[in-house]
Amino acid sequence: MAVVIAILAVALIAGLFGSMLGVGGGVIMVPMLSLAFGVPIKTAIATSIVCVIATSSMAQTTFVSRGMTNIRLGMLLEVATSIGAVAGGVTAVLVDGRVLQYAFAVVLVYVVWQMNRGGGDVAPAETGVLEASYYDPAARREVRYGVRRTRLGFILSFGAGNVSGLLGVGGGAFKVPIMNLLMAVPLKATIATSNLMIGVTAATGAAIFYGRGYMDPYWAVPAALGILAGARIGPRLAMYLPARVLSIIFQVVLAGFAVMMVVQATGVRL
Amino acid sequence: MDPVERMIHVVLLAGIAVSVALMAAGLALGLLKGGGIPRGVVPLAELPRAAWGLSPAAFLSLGLIVLIATPFVRVAGSLIAFAREGDRRYVVLTGVVLAVMCVSVLLGRI
């Protein structure tokens, strides 16, 4: 019973921070489940996939209704990401999981460094490509933006999807920097769009994991319920906090992810 | 909000609510029948019988399935919205995404 409550509590926090930052919480849940609770890695990944879907679906009920999600951009990049995620199963046979985790950690550190240099958020670009706008309650104004480097973003999204499929994460930790730093999408729109995308990416893995019998309600159900509660609150924080603050929290969380990746790589066999 | 988007919004909220209700029912059944939360989900083929028999695992499994279905609904809904707007490019792109998602479901049954 204590275990169930612990999972619920951690999932609530993961759901809150995840939905606030455009990630799915998988990078917290997988190491926590496998290291702290000794859950077999495939079951941990299956649970994490459910968590990512829960984060995405719940948060989108807020983000889409407030017009923050750029659905077109999300769908465009998801063509690459979802194919990458399905292809991840092939890569799993070829690549040592631990090498991947170390590589992931290095990339995360690089991303933190780049976001730090940015100083808060990118200036919206008038490119005429996939133009959209949203109202930012913290800045108290309408933000209109276009998208840059669509082709490069598309290619990198395939890689992000591939890694996500392997590690059982939604890939938000990659999607946010790809859209925000590379494609010049303002951070709040990036968070909302990434949040939409991670649900799609995770759904491509969920059916496979369910069919293979890796899902365990003992872990997945408390985790899902906790996430749903947290992801009700997270998007509101994303809307009302200044982008600068979100960026800093995101950097801290990514740095934490990098540490967790290294810890998991040294402690667990994939 | 565009009327199609509003409809998607309602469907998704309903889907989450149904998922939570099923999971709560499963947990309650588990408590009533003793034995705590079951380990292992019920395979698709066995679900109808297990649900009829008020198996906690069946309700928990159904709750998870409904939750997993929500991104599929989200993408299918967007496809309909793009079709209504006459945006052919995004009907195709969204169709590809939906197709990849469905392929993954098939891969799960192999």
Report on this structure.
The complex is a heterodimer of chains A (270) and B (110). By secondary structure, chain A is mostly helical. Chain A has one domain. Helix content of chain A is 75%, strand content 4%. Chain A contains ten helices and two strands. Chain A has helices at 2-21, 26-36, 41-63, 71-94, 97-118, 150-167, 172-182, 187-211, 217-240, 243-267; strands at 132-136, 141-145. In chain A, strand 1 (132-136) and strand 2 form a beta hairpin. Chain B is mainly alpha-helical. Chain B contains four helices and no strands. The radius of gyration of chain B is 17 Å and the shape is elongated. The mean pLDDT of chain B is 89. At the A-B interface, helix 3, helix 4, helix 8 and helix 9 of A face helix 1, helix 3 and helix 4 of B.
Kindly provide the radius of gyration of chain B, computed on alpha-carbon positions and rounded to a whole number of angstroms. 17 Å
Structural class of chain A: mainly alpha
Which structural class is indicated by helix and strand composition of chain B?
Answer: mainly alpha
On the 0 to 100 scale, the average pLDDT of chain B is 89
Helix proportion range of chain A: over 70%
Number of helices of chain A: 10
Largest sheet of chain B: none
Annotation, overall tally of beta strands of chain A: 2
Alpha carbon gap, first and last residue of chain B: 40 Å
Question: C-alpha Rg of chain A, in Å?
Answer: 17 Å
- What is the percentage of strand-forming residues of chain A? under 5%
- Into which percent range does the helicity of residues of chain B fall? over 70%
Q: Could you give the count of β-strands of chain B? A: 0
